[in-house]
């Protein structure tokens, strides 16, 4: 047999094999990158799962026993957050007189002010803070500070 004919037949066989492997992947119907009919394994259950579901925050569907546990956890978290104390740091100064001046201004506005002293790299800093209170109250205070006194660069943090 002619060598050139052998090369052509081998090349034809390679091309036919490639087409045989590639065509099913190219012509497979897809919807948003997913196969048209995804395979789903259905597991038997003692009770119907559909009758025991509940919507949580209009985003997901959970079994009722899991949904009740989520609700209990949310209630516990809300209780802990309500009991936890927070402060708003309004300023931090290297000079005590500046901290005292700001604290006096805030006290005149009836905010519960504390000045805490801290040392960093052998330098003393005086932190002017409002609180401690619960988070909801301090969020209102933060808004008032921004609106009334122009203090918008404040930080809320847990206390102590």
Helix and strand pattern: HEEEEHEHEEHE
As residue ranges, the low-confidence spans are: 45-56
CATH superfamily of the largest domain: Sporulation related repeat
Report strand order across the widest sheet. 6-7-5-8
Secondary-structure arrangement, i.e. CATH architecture of the largest domain: 2-Layer Sandwich
Q: Specify the CATH class of the largest domain.
A: Alpha Beta
The assigned structural class equals alpha+beta
| Cα Rg | 34 Å
Mean pLDDT across the residues is 77
CATH topology of the largest domain: Alpha-Beta Plaits
Largest sheet: 4 strands, antiparallel
The number of distinct helices, counting runs of at least 4 residues, comes to: 4
- Globular, elongated, flat, extended or rod-shaped: what is the shape? elongated
Question: In total, how many beta strands?
Answer: 8
Helix share, percent = 40-55%
Domain count: the total is 3
Strand content: 25-35%
Protein architecture, described:
The protein has 160 residues and is of the alpha+beta class. It folds into three domains: 1-40; 43-81, no CATH class; 84-159, Sporulation related repeat (Alpha-Beta Plaits). Helix content is 45%, strand content 28%. It has helices at residues 3-26, 64-83, 96-108, 135-149, and strands at residues 30-31, 34-35, 53-56, 60-63, 85-93, 113-120, 123-133, 155-159. A hairpin with a 2-residue loop joins strand 1 (30-31) and strand 2 (34-35). The longest helix is centred in the N-terminal third of the chain and has 24 residues, at 3-26. The chain is elongated. Mean pLDDT is 77; it is low at 45-56.
């Amino acid at each position: 047999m002619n060598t050139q004919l052998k090369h052509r037949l081998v090349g034809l066989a390679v091309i036919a094999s490639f087409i045989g492997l590639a065509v099913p992947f190219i012509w497979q119907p897809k919807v948003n990158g997913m196969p048209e009919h995804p395979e789903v394994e259905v597991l038997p259950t003692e009770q119907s799962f559909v009758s025991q579901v509940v919507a949580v925050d209009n985003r997901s569907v959970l079994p009722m026993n899991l949904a009740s546990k989520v609700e209990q956890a949310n209630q516990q978290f809300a209780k802990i957050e309500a009991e936890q104390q927070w402060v708003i740091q309004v300023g931090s100064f290297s000079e005590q007189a500046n901290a005292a001046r700001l604290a006096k201004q805030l006290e005149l506005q009836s905010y519960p002010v504390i000045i805490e002293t801290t040392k960093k790299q052998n330098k003393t800093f005086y932190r002017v803070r409002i609180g401690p209170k619960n988070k909801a109250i301090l969020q209102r205070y933060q808004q008032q500070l921004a609106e009334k006194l122009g203090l918008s660069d404040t930080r809320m943090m847990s206390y102590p």
